[in-house]
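Today's session is about reading a structure prediction critically. Students often jump straight to the picture, but the first step is always the sequence itself: look for stretches that repeat, for charged clusters, for runs of hydrophobic residues. Only then move on to the predicted structure, which in these notes is written as discrete structure tokens rather than atom positions. Here is the chain we will use throughout the hour.
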Amino acid sequence: MKAIALEQYGSSDDLRLMDLPDPKVAPGEVLVRVKAAGVNPVDWKLAAGYLDPIMEVRFPLISGWDVAGVVERAGFDAGEFAVGDEVFGYVRKDWAQNGAYAELVSAPVRTLARKPAALTWEQAAGAPLAGLTAYQSIKRVGLGKGETVLIHAAAGGVGSLGVQIAVAFGARVIGTASERNHGFLRELGAEPVAYGDGLADRVRELAPDGVDAALDFVGDGAVDVSQQLLKERERVASITDGEAAAKGGHYVWVRPDAADLAALADLADAGRLTVRVEHTLPLAEAAQAWRLSQAGHTRGKIVLTV
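Below is the predicted structure for this chain, in token form.
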């Protein structure tokens, strides 16, 4: 099969289009013919060796954990899916090697759900990691109907999905973003505020009694600001602040979860969740996709088509 891979830790300059063996399909796994693969910052961070202290990585390394495609073959005891099923998923295994930047990927059934019919292949490939991150963060703070949630970096890949999920939960959403993204947030159903100095005061103008929950998708002191505004200090979840738990909140590292993926698919098919795809590139241009991701100016998702 064709795949984008690295022979050792490196950068976008080291990515190569290679001919590699088709992946083996273990019990409880299916072989997926990839239609599209989502690009996430963790892809190039993993390739640079940043996760080496905590994750087993084997080479040649095929990057990518987000996938949308068609089941081509099922392994033993993988009856959840049949050949021809359209699926999407966050295919993270116990070690990193055979990722989604390829024509084929073997995926444990626990990492997959049926692709929502309402989303294109590209949108479905952009949904799993970001969508699960947002969904699991929202569950972690126990967000309920009628509550007010503050979402930091609400216009980003994770934040924009978090806004839509929170709105679908019946919550009021206040979202931080630059001025140029305020219209976008209003379209999603959020009340935008500018980030930066004076953020707490601007949020209090909208929510004088404080907020019920907060989601930090940006870092840079967002947990501390949130706890100035929260009615209960522990109801903040962060994906960037490793000290969030020590501060009394929650640190969230997204997990593959078939039930959570299915919940996202249901929201999409109900018209409550969509994915903005900012850039679509062919597999061979993965290096350019990483450069776009590293620039940090993309509002929606970056997706590779296979």
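Discussion point for the tutorial: The longest strand covers residues 29-39.
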